[in-house]
Amino acid sequence: MKKIFTLLFLLSSFISFSQSTTVVISQVYGAGGNTGAVYNADFVELHNVSGSAYDLTGHSLQYASATSTAAWSGKFDLPAVSIPAGGYYLVQMSTIGANGAALPTVDATATPSIAMASASGKVALVT
Q: pTM score, two decimals?
């Protein structure tokens, strides 16, 4: 039994997990403006987890439904701006709806707008 645990420990040391050391998607909200919505628009929040400013030039936010196997259905090319170290960047993805609270001041608005589903979907930050 001791040999099995030793072997598992040794094998586990070869497995690594990666996570971003720069910018991550910290929040996603879909179905903004719908009946019962908390906010009046869909949004994606980016967070710079690094210790220095991060340039978004050449990056995009892309969206697809949870079941889609085709290409991403929505794409927003982010502007050429930098997120300061530890900072956040709020992108309004959809048009403003009739229900829910207004978003805090956004840093960018997706054009064309991208309406995201309320229950599931896929969002990617792409370079």
A: 0.83
